[in-house]
Amino acid sequence: MANESFLGPVDQINLDALFSDEEKALALKVRSFVDETIRPNIAEWYDNAVFPTEIIPEMGKLGLLGMHLKGYGCAGRSAVEYGLAAQELEAGDSGLRTFVSVQGSLAMSAIYKHGSEEQKQEWLPEMAAGRAMGCFGLTEPTAGSDPASMTTVARQDASGDWILNGKKRWIGLATLANVAIIWAQTGEIGGGRGVRGFVVPTDTPGFEAVAITQKMSMRASVQCEITLTDVRLPASAILPADSAIGLKGPFQCLNEARYGIIWGVMGAARDSFNEVLRYAGERTQFGNPLGAYQITQTKLADMAVAINKGYLLAHQIGRQKDSSGTTPPMISVGKLDNCRVAIEEARNAREMLGGNGITLDYSPLRHANNLESVRTYEGTDEVHQLTIGRALTGIGAFAATEYRG
């Protein structure tokens, strides 16, 4: 029974029964796209540090861009469906799932949640179709885990225009994007009280993006540094909703992206498991296939158990998101532990492949390298531990100044 699961042989507890036929059909449709378009090319794309922009229109046709949003050309899929799509994409490569996340969960979500109707009409249909690309500028060279300390500023002059100055770093897709969501301080720097978001067409004078190169992770994707030099925007460029005032605006978008990661990394882990399971059946040492040895079977068993638990966690959070909604600690539990599990199992799979595992003929080390980034972005382990810790104790420990005794 378990081996007939749409998740494959890793499913040893009948996870298959948790999902509807419609949900499984969507996952298999995305898997076909990955098998036909991504798998035959990913080693070359990764080796040459190429992000394949030619596949974006097909992603749009599949409804993968902003797929959890409703209207404006978006697919309006459930959170669980989005999660299943994310894990299928990341089974192909984390960098390509990250594109869908940056486009849909960050840039499109910011406009959808906080934008004006004019901003939504202008950008969301084009982005959903893959005709326009977006990026999300929050992190800075000196403000990663502490976005409240950002130094990018926006000042309104006598004409009512906004003038933006500052730098952003580790911004996915910025050199390719048509529009950037830039978060900036509009008042007192520090504390995040004056943070607001701006819709910035990337052809605006003073906007410059440069790709970060010589990466050892996420090589089939693009991360950039943005420099903003007297970028002049009309008053209508600000995200006007009250929900976008302060850091709650970007954090709402970050939690959308973190949710996708909870599922996505399970795809990387499952693909690593499938790779080494096949290898264990084919590779012969000392007259027997590797799979005939007890040490191999115990490792495979431990991998399967860990991945099954990760899927259960993702499923619980997904169903919760589709019903009464999630909380930040809930998202942090999923992102923290599933990233830990995925990177450990990718590393274990690489070890079981021996010397062959360091080549791009096999996926686990590529997954492990990518997961180093996935584990870091959208909140490090420590950020998520402290989010959970704050929920448990009622005390915020992100900075010494938070605790007053």
UniProtKB/TrEMBL annotation:
A matching Pfam family: Acyl-CoA_dh_1
GO molecular function: fatty-acyl-CoA binding; flavin adenine dinucleotide binding; glutaryl-CoA dehydrogenase activity
Cofactor section: FAD
Keyword ATP-binding belongs to the record: no
Pathway participation: Amino-acid metabolism; lysine degradation; Amino-acid metabolism; tryptophan metabolism
Enzyme Commission code(s) on record: 1.3.8.6
Keywords carried by this UniProt record: FAD, Flavoprotein, Oxidoreductase, Transit peptide
Superkingdom to which the source organism belongs: Bacteria
Domain Acyl-CoA dehydrogenase/oxidase N-terminal, residue spans: 20-130
Acyl-CoA oxidase/dehydrogenase middle domain span: 135-231
InterPro entries per record: Acyl-CoA_DH_CS, Acyl-CoA_Oxase/DH_mid-dom, Acyl-CoA_Oxase/DH_mid-dom_sf, AcylCo_DH-like_C, AcylCo_DH/oxidase_C, AcylCoA_DH/ox_N, AcylCoA_DH/ox_N_sf, AcylCoA_DH/oxidase_NM_dom_sf
Domain Acyl-CoA dehydrogenase/oxidase C-terminal, first and last residues per copy: 252-392
Keyword Flavoprotein in record: yes
Biological processes annotated in GO: fatty acid beta-oxidation using acyl-CoA dehydrogenase; fatty-acyl-CoA biosynthetic process
Family, per entry: Belongs to the acyl-CoA dehydrogenase family.
Protein name, per record: glutaryl-CoA dehydrogenase (ETF)
Organism for this UniProt entry: Neomicrococcus aestuarii
